[in-house]
Amino acid sequence: MRYAPLTSLFLLLFFALPFSGLKAQTGVKDQVVSAIGSGNAAALAKHFVANVDMALPSASDYYSKAQAEQILRKFFEEHRPKGLTIVHEGTNQGGDSYYIGNLATANGDFRVTFFLKKNGDVFQVKQLRMEAGR
Question: What is the pLDDT along the chain (134 residues), one digit of tens a residue?
Fold first, then answer.
């Protein structure tokens, strides 16, 4: 019974640590959803990898954070967001989390998909797609 406290600590860490990463991922997801839903290109770009794969109706390529922010700023000026609602989420075979949602704007709805990839201790957006709603 001398090792009971050590065993308890090990079990606590074993089961709690995976959820600490989930909490961090959820925080980033919520910040990304908020930034898209409010049309805040600067807040969104803070969560991008160095070169993000981005596809919008007017532009599609790999962009630096600064380029992506400018393109998004223009998109949000032309399509004022009213809010983003996530309708589906999951994890792909590579371990990246993905989120699919509906972005309501002043000019119609868009289907939004973004992927979060873990880089070191942080989760970052590696891909963002916005397609005109059907």
Answer: 455 565 655 555 555 555 444 444 668 999 999 999 999 999 999 999 999 999 999 899 999 999 999 999 999 999 999 999 999 999 988 888 999 999 999 999 999 999 999 988 899 999 999 999 76
pTM, rounded to two decimals: 0.80
Beta bridge partner(s), residue 101: 86, 112
Structure tokens given for 82 = 């009213």
Q: Among candidates 81, 48, 85, 43, which has minimal Cα distance to 64? A: 48
The 10 Å CB-count burial string (b at 16+, else e) for 20-51 is eeeeeeeebbebbbebbbebbbeebbebbbee
CB atoms within 10 A of CB 115: 20
